[in-house]
Amino acid sequence: MTDSVSGTAGAPITDDAPATEAGGRRSVPFRGGGFAPKPVWYVAPLMFVALVLLWEFGSSNGYISPLVLPAPTEVLGAFSDLVRSGMLAKHLQASLTRLVIGFACGATLGVLVGVAIGLYSIPRSAFKPLVAAIFPIPKIALLPLFIIWFGIGEGSKVATILFGSFFPMVIATYGGIDAVDRNLIRMGQSFNLSRVAIVRNIILPSALPAILNGMRIAASISIILLVAAEMIGAEYGIGAYVLLAGNLMATDQLIAGVATLSILGLIVSWLISLAERYFLRWRA
């Protein structure tokens, strides 16, 4: 008599045994691990090096006009001159000051308003339609209005960055709170936890991934608005440097400024990734 679990009498089927046409069983690999892509650290550097080499090859052999896109060696020379002259430090100091103040204030206010919208009925009724109405407006279009209100100095530039980072943080925060599993909240209530304890221990940790994603988006928008604001009435700043290089048709300096902005964006993204790794340890 054949065992119902074995392929033959007394011979259990192992993981590597093939299935039989008679309906014999076999173990299959576990496939419930979900999608878990892992970064391959060397792919990005190789991709970057390949693009730069292709760019250098096209510029050196006349396929790319130096007026349109100068060679990477020329851009590197312009960047070196910017560093040696000390102007890079001045431009970065001005840009980082505006970016940090505007983004920090906008993100903080955005989280506070988003929490209020997510937790309370009156703020939700008052602010959610207002946010939905103002968020689609291009914030750079409001820069002339900010100049009228705050002057052409630092106030208008910081206000533009603050305004641009505020709305993504509001939407990400109350969206994250709305997505919290209500069974967790009911469980906390069944254990007679206070409202403050439920918000601190259940709602905010559950909404934190969405808040950090909103922070990443808000930081990118802030850098874009920083450049746009510095192109109007700023003596120092990466945006002012890029505008001056464009007016002078100095494309090597222009691309050096754009590369500096790209590096700044990468650093900001890396810092937010560190924050995610620290605050979201519980997801591992």
Automatic annotation (TrEMBL):
One of its GO terms (biological process) is alkanesulfonate transmembrane transport. Pfam families: BPD_transp_1. Residues 1-25 are annotated as: Disordered. PROSITE patterns: ABC_TM1. It is a multi-pass membrane protein. The chain crosses the membrane at residues 40-58, 99-122, 129-152, 158-177, 217-242, 254-275. One of its GO terms (cellular component) is plasma membrane. Residues 92-276 form the ABC transmembrane type-1 domain. Signal peptide: none annotated. It is found in: Cell membrane. Keywords: Cell membrane, Membrane, Transmembrane, Transmembrane helix, Transport. Belongs to the binding-protein-dependent transport system permease family. PANTHER family: ALIPHATIC SULFONATES TRANSPORT PERMEASE PROTEIN SSUC-RELATED, ALKANE SULFONATE ABC TRANSPORTER-RELATED, MEMBRANE SUBUNIT. Probably part of an ABC transporter complex. Probably responsible for the translocation of the substrate across the membrane. This is ABC transporter permease subunit. It comes from Nitratireductor arenosus.
